[in-house]
Amino acid sequence: MRISVVGTGYVGLVSGTCLAETGVSVVCVDIDEAKIERLKKGEIPIYEPGLAELVEKNVLKNRLFFNTSLEESLKDADAVFIAVGTPPNEDGSADLSYVLNVAREIGQSISTYMVIVTKSTVPVGTNNKVKQVIMEELAKRGVNAEFDVASNPEFLKEGDAVKDFLSPDRIVIGVETERAKKVMERLYHAFILNQTPLLFMDIASAEMTKYAANSMLATRISFMNDIANLCELVGANVEEVKRGIGADERIGMKFLNAGCGYGGSCFPKDVKALIKTGKDYGYEMKVLEAVEEVNATQKEVIFRKILQHYGNDIKGKHFAMWGLAFKPGTDDMREAASLKMIELLINAGATLTVYDPVAMDEAKRRIGNKVEYAGNMYDALKDADALIIVTEWQEFKIPKFTFIEKALKEKIIFDGRNIYNPEMLEEFGYKYYGIGRETK
Question: Is 266 assigned a catalytic role?
Fold first, then answer.
């Protein structure tokens, strides 16, 4: 089977590479010539564990190709995946211009039947727009090429995307015709053999499923952060509360960690887009509006603890910050809590030295010389008044505390991810601030 994947960003590159791994012949297409040339050389534009090795393997096996010409890539293709970005507009809606531009070019190129699959995260009704654009372009050409549209949303976690794609808990596919369904069943044949559930449904439901899934996860995070803030006021421990409610099989333990807010390319954007969809249809998404509000406030929670500790005056203070990416396993800093925290600290007159295992280049691109950059986690501590932890990278979880106390001016840690045991640090003589756990 042969497919094209348009867009070599996070979703497109992971999806195309993993489908090639199952035996499908895949052409990944992008208009960025320099990016395509780098990919042909094996240079991966994103950090995702295991992806570089998989790209190299499938290129060598002649199952994965890269091209700048969409028209050329569509020759003999059974399906084409649209996997371009849908960044948020100012009103929170998804910008569909890239998706519809690809649809327009598809309509200008196809002459035989194929399935046009939307992989990008798009609001309900987008596939109807894709279909209309393609039909308009075919009419301009006077070509009567048959095609179907389908929705196949992705559910990838950054840092675990390769594993998530190759071992999914379900595959959601929205189709309108039996013919399109058969094409998608052929495409995902390897997953059917592994007994992965293929959940076929109407297209609108598939489009909604993506937004609903991410919004539900975001809701769990904001709910626990709200509970954590209340725990501090009443003297409860959010970690114990998490254990207590997570043991309920109806709730479970996932996405119950209190912290300094969610970020990334999906949750913030998708929550906003679903709120905007509700407004477009005259419906107020009250729960999600609260989820967004709680998350925005939570990104300031560590800053407020810092101000409180120093009597609302941190001018001239210098802090070490461990973690810049919005989560471990990625260099993605979109909507990261670190960005808000850095902004607040600098505006209050403080200075910072920062370190992240993989996001340093991305940080330099985003914030330039507003902070100092350390070569390793311990160098970041030199002459710092306190340590701030923003991302729960594994190497931060069991550090050499003797190194920390020698480098810091005072033994103070502000932990935005609750990775340390408060009692242990108090025994070591540290002043420790977590989230949702009473500080003595």
Answer: yes
